[in-house]
Design goal:
Layout: H1 2-43, E1 54-56, E2 59-60, H2 61-82, H3 91-110, H4 113-136, E3 146-151, E4 154-159, H5 168-190, H6 192-197, H7 202-211, H8 218-264, H9 270-299
Amino acid sequence: MNEEHNTIDSHEKEAVHTETNEHVLAIDEHTNEYTTEAHTEEESSHTHPIYAEQFFGPVTNSLFTSWIAVIIIISIAFAVKRKTRLVPKGVQNFMEMVVEYFLDFFDSITGSRKKSEMFFPFIFTFFVYVLVSNWMGLLPGVGTVGKYVVEEGHEVFVPLLRGGTADLNTTLALAIIAVVASHIIGVISIGVWHHFNKFINIKAIMEIPKKFKEDKLVLMVNPVVVLASLLEIVTEIAKVASLSFRLFGNVFAGEVLLATMSAMLAFGLPLPFMFLEVLVGAVQALVFALLTLSYLTMATEKH
């Protein structure tokens, strides 16, 4: 009986010890989990990613917002066109006033009404698209409604919708279109030969044998002219970088600023900054359009 009793006691002690170890292990696991979560929260930071996130399939949140901007612009254009009359009034009168103002403004850059009228559809479309995309980022829910995801130990806010120009891919595409269009206009206006010589001045090399007898300095001057023309290639790359990063930087900075102000105090505090971003959005759209216009104008002129 004593042996059986001792055996039962040993089994009970082992069971209690096992249960105690499991309980301690559970506490340890819970403690470790809690500690890990706390450590992750300390290391995480609520930041906005500079890249676009997928909305559905290959479509990103900024691309989807860009499509919405295009639909809005096309809808307004068709609505205005449908109401055009021989005697303007209302919206048509306002639009004609805007067009006339921009044409006068473009004349100061192109120096020719003919060039202004030729470039106007392209440049004004750029202006309107960039303006609508900039202002769409200020709408409620755009850039503010989304979810937090953990990436590389950091908590990153991923918005459901994002302004198109707050994505570097969009601004880079616009910049490439603007620069490529300037080259197309250049080829059409002054010809392939003259436009090509702006970047690789073969003409200056071919003139060396002809002018050498009259002017010995041509051996020094023309090679420098050729090297200077090669710098134009670097300038074209700089144009793309300048257009894209200027627009993206200003819009993205405004997005981060509004998010920060809203996190500090959601009511009242972001309002002055929202009015500021409305102004910044208009200015950046105008700057982008005028720089593109200046590139087109320079492309039509011979060196």
